[in-house]
Structures are given as structure tokens and as C-alpha cells.
Write a structure and sequence with these properties.
The protein has 451 residues and is of the alpha+beta class. The chain has three domains: 7-41, no CATH class; 107-182; 198-450, Lipocalin (Beta Barrel). Helix content is 29%, strand content 32%. Strands 4, 5, 24, 25 and 26 form a five-stranded antiparallel beta sheet that branches. A hairpin with a 4-residue loop joins strand 24 and strand 25 (434-439). The radius of gyration is 40 Å and the shape is elongated. The protein starts with 6 loop residues before the first strand and ends with a strand.
């Protein structure tokens, strides 16, 4: 027999360790130098990790908050997804309708027909007035237009599947009008300046909101070429923004494309050629606009080539009453290309300058009696400058004219209705004798009646 000495190398905290931990491999035995038995017990860290537990609790709380945030996002995305899916289904339905048959009802088709019928009615009236005669042909055409309008309304209300019927009838009417215009016995008084000036304006013809479909795009304009190239007689140009800066122009081949917002070309101004002010004009397939306070800019639609000239006396202190930065106002009429501005020398009164289109420079100029800041806008027709001003919130008037041929000035009143109070653009076009207005983001036009 030999004596066994058991040495326990333990700490005083050993007493609370469960007995099963003694048997789990934390206890080892060995023989000492004197033959005694030595037991070695390996204990874990006896200090309780309170800081780690607190850290884990904080992480757990943060994770719970993050999960709630993500859940809320999922709920929001689900709601938006339902809206988008509904819009997509409606769009798909419309696309399928277009693909299946061109005879299906489309509301815009009826609206376009109404617009063109109104234009035909105005054209017949203009033909009759310009010839100052009574003819059974005019009466017949006018009756057909009225009947066509009734058919459009009836089809839209009761029989929306028979749009092709009215399209055929409409094509027949259009052919008759074309034949009427081409007949040598019927020559409308388009662009004829033998009268004594403007006598009246029609009621405003409100087309639609701008191509951006934005009510904030209040500064801008829309126009036709006052001296169009062959093949571009029906072209429209639009450019607008929420500020009086000019960044780009949109070109439409005809009226229908304008309504459908389908441009055949978009001209984005290079940084150095961004415009200021919105009273641009289109003439000879070039767009004339104001680049800086006194710089005239010209952009050729075909070549995208830019050019500019400086009118040194043009002042940046005088703009039209409704909008700022309208320092150079371009216009094209039966007699040529014009620009209107004010100077310190003229004490804020409008100066009319005739431009040489080839040299792109001032050819001649006249000083008017109109203080620019009191005028709503101005335009040229048959070499006569007309100025407008506000009467009330819904009424504007042409109150002044200057004939550049005779130098004669006149003060009078030709009132006309405004669509809304403020407008940033007013330009006459000699090819159709219409006044084009850009009123608070809407395309508006007037038929001009000369004396």
C-alpha cells in the first residue's frame, strides 16, 4: 500500500460548480515527484460578462427597430405596386385595343375630329368673308360641317364602334375643301396687306396643355414658321420651361403630331447657346431667340448651326408686364423679320427694328410711344407693330399700332378674351393669319380679322 496525496489546485469559488462539470473533462490527474496523485481542475472564467449581455441586448433592440422599418417599407411598396399594376393593366388594355383594330373607340380621335371641323368652319367663313360674295357652295359646305359635327357627337355618345364611318365622311369633306381652295375662283385673302389693319380677334381657341403636360411650364411659346420651306408648311415649334430660360425646342410635322406630342426632332441648346426670355420666332426654317440680355441668337433647324449678333443699345431694365427677362421679342410677318426691344436712350419705350435675314443685322428701326413695362406683349402684322395691355383678369386689348411704312401711330381699343390672366408669348403668323399665344402653359390661338 502507498499513501496517496490529493492536491486540489482550486479557487475558493469551486464550491458552486456542479458535480457534472467535474466529470466532463475539466479534471485531469498526474503523478507527482514523490509518487503522490495530483488532480488538476480547469475552471472557466468565473466573472459574469454583464457588459457583453448589455451589448447583445442593445443589438437586439436595434435589429427589432430595423425589422419594423423594413416591414413598413414592404407595406408601402405593396400599395404602390398595386397602383402600378392597375395602371399597367389599363395601359395594356389600350395597347391591345389599338393592336386588335383601328376601328375601336379612342376618345382622342373624336377630339381631333372636333378640332379640325372647327378649323374647317373657320376656313369656310374666312373664304366667304374674303370674297364678300354669297355662294351655294359655301352654304353647302357649311351645312355639311354642321352635320358632321352632329354625327361626331352622336357616334361618341351612342355608337362608339363606328368611328370608321365618320372617318370616311370626314375624308370626303376634307377633299371638297381642298378642291375649293385650289379652285382659281376661290382665293382666300391669306397674307394680303391691302387693308387698313386689324379689326378684331376671334374668341380664344384653347388647344391643350403643353407637351410636357406640366402646369409649371408657364414660360415659353408655340409657333409656326412665318416663311416655311416647301414641305414644312404645317410644322409647329414648341419650347417652354418653368423659368424664362430656353433649353430646347420640339418640332412637330403637323397639327395632329403636336396634339399627340410626337415630335420629329428635338433641338437641345448647347450650354453656350441656352436662351433667356421666351419671345422667339420661326422663319425660313430657323429659330430666332434671345440668348443674353442683348444678344440675338439664330439656330438653323436643318443644320443645327448657331449664329448670333449683339444689339448694343438693348437694355436689360425693361421687360413686358407679365414676365421678366423678355428683352428681345422676335416676330415674322408678311414683310419680313423683326425684333422689338427697349433702350435707356428710348427711356423704356419699345423700339421696332427690321432685320436683314441674310446678314442677320439691323436694317432699320423705329421708336414707338409705348412704354414696354406697361405692355403685356407686342407683335407684327403687315409691317405694323401692335401692342397689348391688360384690361382686367380675363380681358386684354390691342391699344396701339405703329405702321413702319408711313410712321403713323394710332391709339385705339380692340378687346379680346384671355384664357388666363398671364401669358408669356404672343406671335402673329401670316400663313394662316392667326395669333399664337402661350398662356400659363396652354396652347391658345386667335383668328385675326383685318379691315
Amino acid at each position: 500500500m502507498f499513501s496517496v496525496l490529493l492536491l486540489l489546485l482550486v479557487s475558493p469559488a469551486l464550491a458552486w460548480i456542479p458535480i457534472e462539470d467535474w466529470e466532463s473533462g475539466n479534471v485531469t490527474a498526474s503523478e507527482g515527484d514523490s509518487g503522490q496523485c495530483l488532480c488538476h481542475v480547469y475552471l472557466p472564467d468565473t466573472t459574469f460578462p454583464a457588459d457583453r449581455v448589455e451589448h447583445m441586448q442593445q443589438i437586439s433592440k436595434d435589429m427589432i427597430i430595423e425589422v419594423e422599418i423594413q416591414m413598413n417599407k414592404l407595406v408601402s411598396y405593396e400599395a404602390k405596386l398595386e397602383v402600378y399594376l392597375k395602371d399597367l393593366s389599363q395601359l395594356t388594355l389600350r395597347v391591345n385595343m389599338l393592336e386588335s383594330s383601328t376601328n375601336k373607340y379612342i376618345k382622342l380621335d373624336f377630339e381631333l375630329l372636333r378640332i379640325e371641323l372647327r378649323e374647317f368652319e373657320a376656313l369656310v367663313s374666312q373664304l366667304k368673308e374674303s370674297l364678300n360674295v354669297s355662294s351655294p357652295l359655301f352654304d353647302s359646305l357649311y351645312t355639311e360641317i354642321q352635320n358632321m359635327t352632329m354625327i361626331v357627337n352622336q357616334l361618341e355618345s351612342y355608337d362608339k364602334s363606328n368611328l370608321e364611318v365618320i372617318r370616311i365622311e370626314f375624308a370626303k369633306l376634307q377633299k371638297k375643301l381642298e378642291d375649293c381652295q385650289q379652285d382659281q375662283n376661290f382665293k382666300p385673302d391669306m397674307g394680303n396687306c391691302n387693308g387698313t389693319g386689324i379689326m378684331s380677334l376671334s374668341k380664344p381657341h384653347v388647344i391643350q396643355l403643353n407637351a410636357h403636360l406640366s402646369g409649371s411650364y408657364v414660360a415659353g411659346g408655340w409657333a409656326k414658321d412665318s416663311k416655311p420651306l416647301r414641305g414644312y408648311e404645317s410644322m409647329y415649334v414648341y419650347g417652354a420651361h418653368s423659368t424664362t430660360r430656353i433649353y430646347d425646342f420640339y418640332l412637330y410635322s403637323n397639327y395632329d403630331k403636336l396634339i399627340l406630342r410626337t415630335e420629329f426632332k428635338r433641338i437641345t441648346c448647347q450650354i453656350a447657346w441656352i436662351g433667356l426670355g421666351n419671345n422667339f420666332a420661326v422663319r425660313g426654317h430657323s429659330i430666332y431667340y434671345q440668348r443674353n440680355t442683348n444678344e440675338m441668337c439664330k439656330n438653323n433647324v436643318t443644320t443645327d448651326r448657331y449664329d448670333y449678333r449683339v444689339i448694343s443699345e438693348a437694355s436689360g431694365s425693361f421687360s413686358y408686364a407679365y414676365y421678366s427677362n423678355q428683352f428681345l421679342d422676335f416676330a415674322g410677318d408678311e414683310n419680313g423679320l423683326w425684333v422689338m426691344y427697349a433702350s435707356d436712350t428710348s427711356k423704356g419705350k419699345i423700339i421696332v427694328a427690321k432685320l436683314d435675314e441674310k446678314a442677320f443685322g439691323v436694317e432699320n428701326k423705329w421708336t414707338t410711344d409705348v412704354y414696354k413695362q406697361l405692355a403685356g406683349n407686342a407683335f407684327m402684322a403687315c409691317g405694323v407693330m401692335y401692342a397689348t395691355r391688360s384690361v382686367d383678369l380675363t380681358t386684354e386689348e390691342i391699344f396701339y399700332s405703329l405702321d413702319t411704312k408711313t410712321g403713323e401711330e394710332r391709339h385705339f381699343s380692340i378687346p379680346f378674351q384671355k384664357f388666363q390672366e398671364k401669358y408669356s408669348y404672343l406671335d402673329y403668323n401670316p400663313t394662316d393669319q392667326k395669333l399664337y399665344m402661350y398662356n400659363n402653359g396652354y396652347y391658345v390661338s386667335y383668328n385675326v380679322k383685318f379691315n
